[in-house]
Amino acid sequence: MKKIVFICLVFSLNAALSCFAGKKYYVKPDGIPGLAGTSWNWASNDLHAMIEKSVAGDTVFVAAGTYSGGFLMKDGVIVMGGYTANNSQPTERYPIMETTDPAKQSILNGGGVQRPLTLLAPFSIATTWNGFVIQNGNPSPEFKKGSVIYSNTDSRIIAVLYKYNPDTKQGMMVSTKEVKKQWGGHEKEVPGLSIIPNRDSAKNDFAGANHTESILSAFGDQSVDFSQENYPLNGNYAAYWCDTLTIGGYSNWFLPSPGELQEVYDADIKLLLKNLGKNLDYPYWTSSHAGNKLAWAYCFGNGYVHPALKYVSYQVSAIHSFTLPEHPDGIYFAGGGAFLCKNGILENCMVKNNVSSSKGGGVYVGSGARLINCVVEGNNAPEGKEIYYEPVTGIISPLANDDTKLSVYPNPVKAGSNLTISGSEKEDATYQLIHIATGRIMSKGTLHSGKNTIPASGQPGIYLLLLRSGNKSYQTKLIIN
Q1: One domain for residues 132 and 164
Q2: Residue 328 maps to a domain
Q3: Are residues 163 and 305 in the same domain?
Q4: For residues 182 and 316, what is the distance between their CA atoms, to the nearest angstrom?
Q5: Predicted confidence (pLDDT) at residue 19 exceeds the cutoff of 60
Q6: 414: domain range?
Q7: Could you say which of 76, 85, 253, 361 would form a disulfide bridge with 125 (CB–CB 3.0 to 4.6 Å)?
Q8: Are strands 284-289 and 127-130 parallel, antiparallel or unpaired?
Q9: What is the mean pLDDT of residues 57-80?
């Protein structure tokens, strides 16, 4: 099978060295669990744990070997594979793109049951995984704990399943969207809402939906808003926000009880929720009552519940319960080997033998994500057998901030005719014309400053035209009739 190779950007030595300015952690297959991972001699064998303890600016170095399970990219944390684990020469690395010896490769193995590498939400910092073989991925379309709910309407992930019973097909999901609100109704009674006297009782309270109804019946949209001057009456409080939330076609959300948030905590999906943008370092309001002035709040950092004054603004996240079939296409399982969003970068990687029952057998490349010098082959999917590029709208979409003016015309263009690209770039640029459905590069070449004419593909379809000049990149969707 013909290899598909992407060569996009060349980084300067200074830029490459600056990537490793933060802390360094080391992982190898024969490392010892629980070690700090501060050198090859003290390497951990737990790649998940080293990624979790890293922060933006840190780098995780990974020795050759096989690492099983689905890994989540972390904003700003660089992960480098293919190292020899030689403590006297810690930067010694195998020739990643030249070897086929598994003993000299860092392999992310999905085991045929999950996606090996995932970035589910846009990052604020360009984040690279470099030097890996990504193989045997097959993200399951089944509903299960940790599955993400993707809204085709909103074009984003709106919730994560934390509880599901395959026999009854009943489940619970927690929203990725959250706000900061007051609990509401400070010093007011809530008829029908019993006072929960202590922490143990709070954690055994699972009546969030009923509590939310009682709170709404008591306050409606007339709760005192202590966050605004003159304390107006309005619906700016936690339960009201949950009740009026509609995302991805889902409504009937409610403010969870402490017991329900404890189930989210116990589902071991905290890292996933953090990667989706939830701020788990701060307390969350629950719907459980602790008195006219107090309500129970929940902390995801340690699973601790505590009473707090109702006029304090805490994080608010909503819960939705459902029975299938309700939006059965909600599980997003594109990208058999890797799923990338904005600022996710795969560099010097081989992606092979992955399967998706949706889009992108090898890699799903979202807007603002990049593949650099990667080989993607032997994958399979109904749409985008090797690579699926998220459709691009508009004429030219810059991936770097600049004031360059470019135009591509005609668009749509007739198959086999010529396409004109003109702009004000003073430097030469390279282009790639990629067939979105298959991920194949149909043509590529060099563009000079001024006006250029290139042949359009003779095969009708929807294409992605990638243009690169220096450190600037552009993309546009092209329709060939």
Answers
A1: no
A2: no
A3: yes
A4: 9
A5: no
A6: 394-481
A7: 76
A8: unpaired
A9: 94
Residue recorded with tokens 């926000």: 241
CA distance 218 to 200: 26
Checking if the pLDDT of 26 tops 90, the result is yes
Question: Measuring CA to CA, how many Å separate 443 from each of 192, 197, 233, 420, 439?
Answer: 69, 70, 63, 14, 12
In this structure, are residues 306 and 87 in contact, taking their beta carbons and an 8 Å threshold?
A: no
Domain co-membership, 277 together with 157: yes
The alpha carbon dihedral of 198, 204, 210, 216 has a sign of positive
* Least trusted range by pLDDT, from 3-17, 186-200, 424-438: 3-17
Strand partners, 352: 135, 377
One domain for residues 106 and 87: yes
Q: Are residues 410 and 277 in the same domain?
A: no
**What confidence tier does 334 reach under pLDDT thresholds 50, 70, 90?**
confident
Please indicate, yes or no, whether residues 173 and 318 belong to a single structural domain of this protein. yes
Both 372 and 480 in a single domain?
no
Select the more confidently predicted residue: 424 or 60. Answer: 60
> Is 337 contained in some domain?
yes
> Which of 299, 323, 347 is where one domain is finished?
323
Rounded Cα distance between 98 and 440, Å, is 22
Q: With 50 as the cut, is the pLDDT of residue 28 above it?
A: yes
- The verdict on 197 and 318 lying in the same domain is yes
Residue 393: band (very low, low, confident or very high) from pLDDT cuts 50, 70, 90 = very low
